[in-house]
């Protein structure tokens, strides 16, 4: 059975749980947040509501970054499978490689893509990291035109992008 | 129209039950202990954050966030708004069931401290006996519920020797994601930085040990407090991923406190605006924020690495009462003293 078949039932369940949540919230308000019983009910019903809305959206309920963020900032968790370009300006007349670091790889093989402003793939290739956190050289086509592109690191299906960075090709 | 701000740290309280020697919270520098806010106040600010900003990730911090009144309900509100939630906790205030209640809301990102493999060192750093054991106990409870927290190690002179032991200890607990935050001058520790600051050589040796362990044990280790490249060059520590301070506001750990004051990051004391008094546009485009990008410290002007390093942690510069024309104070401490 398709997911879509369940959607009307999930919508009804959301309406019912949503009503229960509103009642629990009112109970918490009326008891001025002093009743642990009411707060516990509100929390449990709230958790149920989050689960249902997650199912409804067929997504992950806002948990897009459960494995961390691709941007390492003070006190924010870093993601796995991240690529960092050593020099984001590549002189194509001098080199056909992009020097990068690959951090926390969790796959044996990756695809890297060079994508232009229109999301068109200009170049694509595969590589396998030899070590855990390591310096890697990504070979690119010498005929790529100068300009600004996105270097994307994806799984071998090419569907899941782990990391993306802007690079500039010059001559 | 809402302003896009992907990552926000929300300081729900300034209250904490530990007395960490290294605590970076800027108010510790002022000598004033802010009054504990009410649930109503914290909730009002939280809702205002979602009203003015388009947020995908909100990290609850403090103080110790669990000391905030009805903390679970605040997390519930954020989750119902569709945000991904992270919690930075010391693992010492709330009971295991309080953490599990939050896990049931779909929260999967928890950061808890393990400063050393030795309880006595961890407890010395937090000034509370038994804090190491409590943190480990909460980590274990989270793991039983399918969560692998991130371990946070603040590197001071007290725990940087044998830190490879600490990394192995953390890995033995089934944790593969570790944040190594060098002690950053500010807050509680500002009174006497030399009491906490390892020498440059000690710091470099510690990072080398940690980097090697990261490679050996295949750990995801990050150095999250931005550090001047002349102090630690990321190229020498390939096992560790280093952060750098971005001037792009959307890539910064913008921090908002329970009064609605917006700061450049959790370490910076400088207020860019208030979400109840200023528009989101005004705050994001604040001239105070632009100064960070425009002012290059004299010390760094001829440095080829400045574009990556950006003079280390400029918030630490601010906490020390120095102008932005000065680099991270760690640079000159290491240069001017025998701390090399």
What is the average of the pLDDT values of chain A?
84
C-alpha Rg of chain B, in Å?
Answer: 19 Å
Question: Which CATH architecture of the largest domain in chain A would you pick?
Answer: Sandwich
Shape of chain B: globular
- Could you give the order of the helices and strands of chain A? HHEEEEEEEE
Please indicate the percent range of residues of chain A in DSSP E strands (runs of 2 or more): 25-35%
CATH topology of the largest domain in chain A: Immunoglobulin-like
CATH class of the largest domain in chain A: Mainly Beta
Shape of chain A: elongated
Please identify which CATH superfamily of the largest domain in chain A we are dealing with. Macroglobulin (MG2) domain
Q: Biggest interface: chains and residue counts?
A: A-B, 39 and 54 residues
From the N-terminal CA to the C-terminal CA of chain A, the straight-line distance is 55 Å
DSSP strand count of chain A: 8
Largest sheet of chain B: 11 strands, mixed
Total strands of chain B: 13
Helix content of chain A: 25-40%
How far is it from the N-terminal to the C-terminal residue of chain B, by CA? Answer: 51 Å
Can you tell me about this structure?
The complex is a heterodimer of chains A (171) and B (340). Chain A is of the alpha+beta class and 171 residues long. Chain A has helices at 3-30, 36-57; strands spanning 82-85, 89-91, 97-103, 110-115, 121-127, 134-139, 147-154, 161-170. A 5-stranded mixed β-sheet of chain A has the order 2-8-7-4-5, with no helix packed on it. In chain A, helix 1 (3-30) packs antiparallel against helix 2. The longest helix of chain A has 28 residues, at 3-30. The radius of gyration of chain A is 24 Å and the shape is elongated. Chain B has 12 helices and 13 strands. Chain B has helices at 39-52, 71-80, 96-103, 119-126, 131-144, 163-172, 200-217, 280-284, 287-294, 306-309, 314-319, 329-336, and strands spanning 3-4, 7-11, 53-54, 57-61, 84-88, 109-113, 150-155, 177-182, 220-223, 240-242, 254-257, 261-263, 271-274. Chain B is globular, with a radius of gyration of 19 Å. The mean pLDDT of chain B is 92. Classes of the chains: A alpha+beta (171), B alpha/beta (340). The interface between A and B is large, with 39 and 54 residues.
């Amino acid at each position: 059975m398709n997911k879509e078949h369940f959607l009307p039932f999930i919508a009804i369940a959301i309406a019912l749980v949503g009503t229960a949540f509103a009642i629990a919230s009112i109970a918490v308000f009326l008891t001025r947040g002093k009743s642990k019983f009411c707060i516990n009910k509100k929390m449990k019903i709230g958790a149920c509501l989050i689960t249902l809305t997650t199912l409804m959206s067929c997504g992950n309920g806002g948990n897009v970054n459960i494995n961390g963020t691709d941007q390492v900032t003070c006190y924010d968790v870093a993601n796995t499978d991240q690529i960092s370009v050593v020099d984001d300006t590549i002189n194509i007349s001098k080199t056909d490689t992009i020097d990068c670091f690959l951090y926390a790889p969790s796959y044996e093989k990756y695809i890297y893509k060079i994508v232009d402003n229109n999301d068109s793939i200009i170049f694509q290739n595969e590589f396998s990291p030899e070590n855990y956190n390591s310096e890697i050289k990504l070979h690119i086509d010498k005929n790529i035109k100068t300009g600004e592109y996105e270097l994307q690191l994806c799984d071998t299906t090419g569907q899941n992008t782990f990391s993306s960075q802007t690079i500039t090709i010059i001559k | 129209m809402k302003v896009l701000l992907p990552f926000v740290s929300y300081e729900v309280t300034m209250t904490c039950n530990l007395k960490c020697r290294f605590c970076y919270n800027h108010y510790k520098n002022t000598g004033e202990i802010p009054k504990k806010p009410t649930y109503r106040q914290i909730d009002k600010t939280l809702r205002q954050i979602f009203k003015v900003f388009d947020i995908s990730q909100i990290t609850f911090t403090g103080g110790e966030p669990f000391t905030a009144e009805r903390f679970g309900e605040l997390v519930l509100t954020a989750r119902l708004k569709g945000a991904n939630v992270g919690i930075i906790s010391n693992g010492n205030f709330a009971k295991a069931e309080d953490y599990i209640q939050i896990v049931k809301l779909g929260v999967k990102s928890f950061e808890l401290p393990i400063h050393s493999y030795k309880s006595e060192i961890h407890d010395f750093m937090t000034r509370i006996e038994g804090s190491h054991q409590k943190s480990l106990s909460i980590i274990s409870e989270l793991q039983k519920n399918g969560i692998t927290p991130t371990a946070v190690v603040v590197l001071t002179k007290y725990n940087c020797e044998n830190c490879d032991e600490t990394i192995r200890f953390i890995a033995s607990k089934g944790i593969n994601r570790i944040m190594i935050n060098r002690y950053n001058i500010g807050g509680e520790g500002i009174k006497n930085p030399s009491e906490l600051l390892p020498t440059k050589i000690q710091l470099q040796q510690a990072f080398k040990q940690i980097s090697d362990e990261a490679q050996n044990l295949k750990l995801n280790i990050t150095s999250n407090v931005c550090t001047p490249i002349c102090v630690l060059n990321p190229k020498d520590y390939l096992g560790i991923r280093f952060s750098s301070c971005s001037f792009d506001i959307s890539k910064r750990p913008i921090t908002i406190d329970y009064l609605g004051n917006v700061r450049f990051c959790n370490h910076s004391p400088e207020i860019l605006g208030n979400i109840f008094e200023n528009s989101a546009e005004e705050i994001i485009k604040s001239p105070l924020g632009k100064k960070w990008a425009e002012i290059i410290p004299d010390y760094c002007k001829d440095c080829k690495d400045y574009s990556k390093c950006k003079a280390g942690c400029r918030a630490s510069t601010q906490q020390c009462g120095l102008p932005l024309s000065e680099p991270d104070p760690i640079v000159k401490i290491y240069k001017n003293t025998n701390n090399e």
